[in-house]
Amino acid sequence: SYLLTCKHMEDVITDTDGLDEKKKEKLRFQTKLFTDAMSPTNFVMTNPDVLNETMKTGGNNLVKGFENLLNDLKRGQGDLSITTTKYDAFELGDNIAVTKGQVVYQNDLIQLIQYEPTTEKVSETPLLVIPPWINKYYILDLRKGNSLIEWLVEQGHTVFAISWVNPTKDLANKSFEDYMHEGVLDSLTQIESITGQNQTNAIGYCLGGTLLATTLSYLTTKKQAKRIKSATFLTTMLDFDKAGDMKLFLDNDQLDNLERMMDAQGVLSGKELQRTFSLMRANDLIWSFVVNNYLMGREPFPFDLLYWNDDCTNMPSAMHRFYLRNMYQDNKLIEAGGIEISGVPIDLSKIKTPCHFISTKEDHIAPWLATYD
């Protein structure tokens, strides 16, 4: 009955005349949020596993679940902050972000980490990893055996990685071009000084890849493109036309509200972004934990990726406004000269650097249709 009702609601939206496709997409998303919430598994009396656990424990699962709920409300200081992993199971530098390295440079926006080699010989060309700044850098250096940085070092690369600052309102005026100059370009300068090499391979992940592409265009115009020998883009959006469900949160009214929030705080709280991302995968990131934590009364499983996901960072107001308006909303990055960085028109079509693109089928933040070109 539930599944038939869900399908009927979806069909009604699809078959409704007079609604443009963008409005239908928004209505489909909102309807899915409602139907996900109303799933029988989310309620005690219609979830057989919960009923069985309640009878088996004499209701202790519900008592423990209520305690978990109160703890999550306390953790969120009145807002519900759902526990998604066992946080005390991880410690940075102990069993997560464990690849050995040291900070070799820092400025207002970054710390540059150089990782220790583990091979007798290393590649002549160093490698710079540019992660997104919406979460901490160690997305690519999780537990041992689940770390791209660890693997790269084992292949003989001299690996550097940017660790972005978690900005406060003091950095509200840091712009997208500041992230390029103080992030990528300053890092390249330091790497060239440390290694004595005038070329660096680069990996850009997600938003870090968007910044890398912008930097490549900038360097091409400045006749400095050879500073980056090759570029690898991991789930990176350059054409935001097919950006998926994220665009549903970024119409004019919602962007106006976001900008008012950022103007008041100087930053967009990382928790706000995290809530948005969770809504896009509500069954996986919300309702599965409601059932496990509150109805079954259990603790979540230790999961390094979800530990990282909860370790979110803020967005400076000036940078995030530029990014959302010019890229997500107006899709100007793919227009020749659509945006300017430090007075230089950005034109991705002029980039001649060898590039490799990796897209992932199930990515809900950077859908493969938007990253595969």
Q: Which features would summarize this protein structure in a list?
A:
about 375 residues, alpha/beta, 13 helices
Description:
43% of the residues lie in helices and 13% in strands. It has 373 residues and is of the alpha/beta class. A 7-stranded mixed β-sheet has the order 1-2-4-3-5-6-11, with helices on both faces. Strands 7-8 form a two-stranded antiparallel sheet. Helix 5 (148-154) links the parallel strand 3 (127-130) and strand 4. Helix 4 crosses helix 10.
What's the structural blueprint in terms of helices and strands?
Elements: H1 2-15, H2 21-37, H3 48-57, H4 60-75, E1 101-106, E2 110-115, E3 127-130, H5 148-154, E4 159-164, H6 176-195, E5 200-205, H7 207-221, E6 228-234, H8 252-265, E7 267-268, H9 270-280, H10 282-295, H11 304-310, E8 315-316, H12 317-329, E9 340-341, E10 344-345, E11 355-358, H13 368-371
Parallel strand pairs: 3-4, 3-5, 5-6, 6-11
Antiparallel strand pairs: 1-2, 2-4, 7-8, 9-10
